[in-house]
Amino acid sequence: AVVSTQSTGNTNMTLLFVLFLIPLPAVAGDTCGQDRVILGDWFVAHGSPSLLEEPIPELVSVLQTDPYLDPSNPPPTPSPSFCAMQWSNNTVGGLRKYRLANFDSEASARTANYSITHRGHCASCSTLQDLGVYMRQNLTSATRHCGILGILSSKLQRNCLRDIGFSEECISIWGYNIVNTRKECFWVCIKSAVEGEPFNKPDGSLNDCLQCDEDKSGPNFKFFSGRTRRNSGIPSAIKRPDSQVYHMEHCYWYGQL
């Protein structure tokens, strides 16, 4: 997640926004050879949280309080853990319902006839709708734009995240994350924006704004979102060490794309 930046004068406010339009590869390992926009759109259309069957994992919910206000957060993360899905034979409006569940190993998920959807426990962004959103676009640029709007109005920020396609569950943690990063990394990110820093430094490390976000907001975001691009095997405009990426494929659609 990334924060936008601003500069204030006596009578006006200037928004400094550097938008890095770095496209994701149309076809990559995570998409099973399918076009990522087409497959991503399919998961968005077929993966609404309203299609989830009970029991729904506890953390797959809309956050009612800001987790960044509690210094004891994030709670300990179970390790190893995997969030997996299984299609149901029950339908709503012609769409199949599905289940999400936590497993302590890939093997135990496969034995239960579930498909891994990301490494780590299920939480607010683990729905298949949010998988589709993560898959089909460069979220770094899109969420940065929402962060700009959040300076003006929390409602504008929420509507922006909703327009991207996120579920209400996922919007809740993204919103808190953006606000916290703005609070903790504001001046660092102004400097990065003014200097036009690329996402990664020449040695491959994150620029100072992204590193601040990673340090100050990342732990809570990872815990309460569940899904990230890295633990879902989805490429990002931000280069990460290979050791941080869970390489996987999302081959569990049904019918025609």
Describe it.
It is a single chain. This protein is an alpha+beta fold. Helix content is 37%, strand content 13%. It has helices at 36-46, 106-111, 128-136, 139-152, 154-164, 168-194, 208-216, 218-225; strands spanning 5-8, 13-16, 82-92, 95-103, 115-119. The strands form 2 sheets. A 3-stranded antiparallel sheet has the order 4-3-5. Strands 1-2 form a two-stranded antiparallel ribbon. β1 (5-8) and β2 (13-16) form a beta hairpin. α1 (36-46) runs antiparallel to α3 (128-136), α4 (139-152) runs antiparallel to α5 (154-164) and α5 packs across α6 (168-194). The two termini are 29 Å apart.
Helix content: 25-40%
The total of beta strands comes to: 5
Shape: globular
Order of helices and strands: EEHEEHEHHHHHH
Question: What's the rounded overall pLDDT mean?
Answer: 88
Unreliable residue runs: 1-23
Query: What percent of residues are in strands?
Result: 5-15%
Continuous helix count: 8
Distance between the termini: 29 Å
SSE order and pairing:
Layout: E1 5-8, E2 13-16, H1 36-46, E3 82-92, E4 95-103, H2 106-111, E5 115-119, H3 128-136, H4 139-152, H5 154-164, H6 168-194, H7 208-216, H8 218-225
Helix pairs in contact: 1-3, 4-5, 5-6, 6-7, 6-8
List keywords for this structure.
alpha+beta, 5 strands, 37% helix
How is this structure best summarized?
This protein is of the alpha+beta class and 257 residues long.
